[in-house]
Amino acid sequence: MLKLKSLLWLLPLGLLGACNDNNDNPPEAPKVPAEVGVRPAYLVSQMTDGPLKSELEACHGMNFYRSDLSIGHRGAAMQFPEHTRESYQAAIDSGAGVVECDVTFTADKALVCRHSQCDLHTTTNILAVPELAAKCSVPFSPFDAATDTPASAKCCTSDITLEEFMSLKGKMDGANPKATTVEAYMAGTPGWRTDLYSATGTLMTHAQSIEMFKAAGVKMTPELKAPAVTMPFDGMSQQDYADKLVAEYQAAGVSGASVYPQSFNLDDVKHWIATAPEFGNQAVYLDDRDETQAGFDPMNPDTWQPTMATLKADGVEIIAPPLWMLVTVGADGKIAPSPYATQAKAAGLKIITWTLERSGHLTDGGGWYYQSITDVTNNEGVVYELLDVLAKDIGVIGVFSDWPATVTYYANCKGL
């Protein structure tokens, strides 16, 4: 079982006495132990027999350490309520070298960690708190069997103050569309996840996440979420919002080298490049053009606007598409880099991708994240076949995962 309170907290104390005999060469950063648990070995056991499986099997029982290839997506959201202290700690303990706080804002413009400005009804207990549920943009509506209308609600961080937000408890993301009561609606955790660790779910402000990650010695990747309200909001423009995110790192004394600010909005990335280059040079353009740009096809460069070369010329250094955009099935029936991947590399762009361990069971094709390789996705071990192509053939610098131990295991086994 993964331990939430590990010896990792003691490492900074143990390193205080370290010294460098050669002042011209700073000491190599110490390796930080990681606990990968039983899941990686299980996934390896499910792989089709071959050299990669044998190589990964041979790493069972070795010592594992933190890796920057492993990015905690909302923490460790497969088993812990996302964007909570507990989820972040699980990601840190399982070897994530980078951890994500998705950033949105409250009614009093405080920055907090939530995946969406309007997801409190599925990720927290707000509907079970009558005085706060009354403030939701759209109150709870039960399932209507006569019209087959799903149960629904809409509760946003911008509906409540920071103090009210911090009084909530995080829960596993999910809702039951057939629910006729609030209690049943909140009990919607997907069957391939678990509620074993959802008894507590401590919500976090963005500033609190910075202090936690800084103390643990991990890098940080905040995502500026698209506002669900009209901007400017109470005098705060989109640019003010982007500036406020960076300012909280500056106030905490965190170097831009330790931060990868992200946004699906290319203008946000360009704004950071222009106004805060220390952070903008590592800004990540999250690419969802398959959903936002008509005709976009990651397998056909003629449909890309802007092109990879244009992005690079505009100062973008890191691009982050979903997993499926980077791969295809080759003529030999194996997973291979897609045209998107090869042209991004050719343009000099670094690549991060999302999201591993978010698809449930892979025995039936893997769903949305595996849509370009559905024909060869037929067992749980395919996750490592995909990861091997991403790391070895494409050269991604980071992989978001809902269970970072999976990537930590691979990175250590491969010496990355």
Automatic annotation (TrEMBL):
<dbReference type="InterPro" id="IPR030395">
    <property type="entry name" value="GP_PDE_dom"/>
</dbReference>
<keyword id="KW-0378">Hydrolase</keyword>
<keyword id="KW-0732">Signal</keyword>
<keyword id="KW-0319">Glycerol metabolism</keyword>
<comment type="similarity">
    <text>Belongs to the glycerophosphoryl diester phosphodiesterase family.</text>
</comment>
<dbReference type="Pfam" id="PF03009">
    <property type="entry name" value="GDPD"/>
</dbReference>
<feature type="domain" description="GP-PDE">
    <location>
        <begin position="68"/>
        <end position="411"/>
    </location>
</feature>
<protein>
    <recommendedName>
        <fullName>glycerophosphodiester phosphodiesterase</fullName>
        <ecNumber>3.1.4.46</ecNumber>
    </recommendedName>
</protein>
<dbReference type="GO" id="GO:0008889">
    <property type="term" value="F:glycerophosphodiester phosphodiesterase activity"/>
</dbReference>
<dbReference type="InterPro" id="IPR017946">
    <property type="entry name" value="PLC-like_Pdiesterase_TIM-brl"/>
</dbReference>
<feature type="signal peptide">
    <location>
        <begin position="1"/>
        <end position="17"/>
    </location>
</feature>
